[in-house]
Amino acid sequence: MNIPFLNFIVIILLLFFFTRFSCGADIITSSTNLSDGRTLVSSDGSFELGFFSPGSSAKSRYLGIWYKNIPVPTVVWVANRCDPINDTSGVLMINSTGNLVLLNQSSGSVVWASNSKKEAQNPVVQLLDSGNLLLQDRTPGKSDIILWQSFDHPTDTLLPGMKLGWDLRTGLNRQISAWKSPDDPCPGDLIYGVEPYNNPDAVIWKGSRRYYRTGPWNGIGMSGAPQLKPNPWFTFNLVSNEEEVYFIFYLKNKSAITRLIVNQTTSRGERYLWKEDTQTWIEYSHFPWDDCDTYGTCGAYGTCVNTALPPCQCLKGFKLKSQEEGSMDWFQGCVRNKPLDCHKGDGFIKFGGLKLPDTAHSWVNKSMNLNACRAKCLENCSCMAYTTLDIKETSGCAIWFYDLIDLKQVQSAGQDLYIRMAASDSDHTETKGKTNLMAGLIIAAAILVVTRVLVITYYIRRSHRNIQGRENGCSDERQIEDMEFPLFELDLISNATNNFSSNNKLGEGGFGPVYKGTLPDGKEIAVKRLSRSSGQGLVEFKNEVALIAKLQHRNFVKLLGCCIQGEEKMLIYEYMPNKSLDYFIFDHTRRSLLDWPKCFHIICGIAKGLVYLHEDSRLRIIHRDLKASNILLDSEMNPKISDFGMARAFGEQSEGNTKRVVGTYGYMAPEYAIDGNFSIKSDVFSFGILLLEIISGKKNKGFYHLNDNLNLIGHAWRLWKEGNASELIDSFVQESCTLSEVLRCIHIGLLCVQQYPEDRPSMSSVVLMLGGGTALAIPKEPGFLFGKKSLKTIPLSSKPESSSPNQLSYSVLEPR
């Protein structure tokens, strides 16, 4: 056989190979396919289609689409979400019916299919520059027909140009659902979609229940989502007509890269922007934003005010329904002080700055003005409220029937709502513009005089009532009362705790004992009683009241009020039946009650609480005493951060310095313990310690590895460097965990306890890491690596009153 003939054979084989097994840059035809190991790339190089393994699940192969030009692996769509292929035999092809199918060649089974019912003569698959995978019929001489597209079947990600909502003609519902975990793209129970009412709402569901609403579209934005605001990167809109109801966003700046996801770990919708200079995703916004965003928190006619305490309040003219039954159940909502009488001239009261109520029972008209809208509502006795549909154009009408649910005070982006009231309640509001000026002045003067008399009478009575404790407690009590904070009588608290019986004692904190109590209505409380012998307690007491009064978050223990009378100063908290985290993780028997899913839930809850303190609250707050005993657990094992006595609040600053170092040894960051410098990164260090303690079941303080003189941090660091990090995991955790998830948490913990604050991640980055939304950096050496033998290297003072910034008071080293 001569050489030219051999060359000819090689050419023929190559032509056959490329004809059968390869495809164009961005298309697949009926004569080509896509096998594992090969990819399809959009024409501009933005997106790539191929097979991948999420997280550390190397054996599970999925067909997905991801960003091609981003170094951080970011998957935006998955075909076989719950049906992985366990080897590399997967192949994507167009079958004889013109459908796109994913085959497992090892088993010969179809793993996934597009299931289009349209016939096609020349089907072609193309990956568009938008990230949309398109199956079309491209028959010559005819217009292209879309048979199927991935944008109609999204997974957990909403991309620019993708519709979230309904095609009313076909019944197609486009919604996104979270991955179960970073290693499992199968849908979790968190779903984001649009409810196609007359006045559509974008909603997050947890399972079958509503979890969050944005509020309806008002022509500018969603009435309850002020974070969804105009920006230089993208614009958004809601389309509602007879054929479709959907939410959509488009890029303003074509170079911007942004995506919206739902995250099972954080229970949030999250929007990210790609930051080119740092090569990372940054969170632009998220929802729910605060506790008041939780659906129906305050019941019917109750409005949630995030800055108030308690946050739930009845609207003017309403009272709490459950008060009639001797309880304080806000989920039952509020009822009118005076019942409506439709035939005796009901009126309306205007309430401003509201997230509009649930639109399930609403009606809209795009051509009516506000006066016509009012008349329309008045003529129907079931109509409870009305407002302008489009505040941008000041046109249109929206009215609500039956009870008004899920109201929230939204200062920056709320809307006016006119609520139906009995004639006697609405007369003042609707006729105040018609009263003459003199009558108004007389009424105002009379109110002023009466108010001053009442205030003077109140202070006189209070001073007589508290005369015995005036010298010691009067000024402090006024400071507390000035916060408009609930005050409990001493007799009430004494009776609730059986006169502070030792049988009711829950424990002893740094500033005094904590007692369990039961109020007359049956509500259980925890009473933190400030020790009279505590030299530091008064400052921290007022600090804790001042801070917690401003904080509302599902992962903070709820402060119900306080008691300050004479020398007695007490904080009244909601009672946590499962005590604190250290009660479980450091006890061999009780630790078995905390499997890994519960541990991970607790870790994420603590992280989200710290994000609120550091970034989302009105004040930037540093806790300074985060530890296992300060993490309380409710009846469902939800974590609640407690004990804000050491916390410090800042404005735009994020760090400070103190000569009096306070806190708990074993959790304090090096720069704080040694130099008195503290910042939000000090809390990050404490969180890292807590994370490693939860995983290992060992206390950092008291852990001592004899062979190498290492404490828990040093031990974890050594194991991680040697590739043996799994040896740190407690046996009870190992029995129920996904190993890759726990190893990722150890990695995150080591990032948090790095020696220098600037190397530690922010807590918002930690939440993102826990959700698997970003790659992890390589940690540097931690601070405080060594055990007991090395304590002599830290200068200590035997005098508690020592104030040198370079010394650590010995009294502070004792556990609180």
From TrEMBL:
Bias kind Polar residues: ranges: 795-810
Domain Apple: 342-422
Residue span(s) of domain Protein kinase: 500-784
Molecular function GO terms recorded: ATP binding; protein serine/threonine kinase activity
Domain Bulb-type lectin: residue ranges: 25-148
The entry's keywords: ATP-binding, Disulfide bond, Glycoprotein, Kinase, Membrane, Nucleotide-binding, Serine/threonine-protein kinase, Signal, Transferase, Transmembrane, Transmembrane helix
Any one GO biological process: recognition of pollen
Record carries keyword Membrane: yes
Classification via InterPro entries: Bulb-type_lectin_dom, Bulb-type_lectin_dom_sf, Kinase-like_dom_sf, Pan_app, Prot_kinase_dom, S_locus_glycoprot_dom, Ser-Thr/Tyr_kinase_cat_dom, Ser/Thr_kinase_AS
Enzyme Commission number(s): 2.7.11.1
Chain intervals for the UniProt region annotation (Disordered): 794-816
Classification via Pfam families: B_lectin (PF01453), PAN_2 (PF08276), PK_Tyr_Ser-Thr (PF07714), S_locus_glycop (PF00954)
Residues making up the signal peptide according to the UniProt record: 1-24
Catalyzed reactions per annotation: L-seryl-[protein] + ATP = O-phospho-L-seryl-[protein] + ADP + H(+); L-threonyl-[protein] + ATP = O-phospho-L-threonyl-[protein] + ADP + H(+)
The keyword Kinase is annotated on this UniProt entry: yes
Transmembrane stretches, start-end: 437-460
PANTHER family recorded: BULB-TYPE LECTIN DOMAIN-CONTAINING PROTEIN, RECEPTOR-LIKE SERINE_THREONINE-PROTEIN KINASE
Family statement drawn from the similarity comment of this UniProt entry: Belongs to the protein kinase superfamily. Ser/Thr protein kinase family.
Name this polypeptide is given: Receptor-like serine/threonine-protein kinase
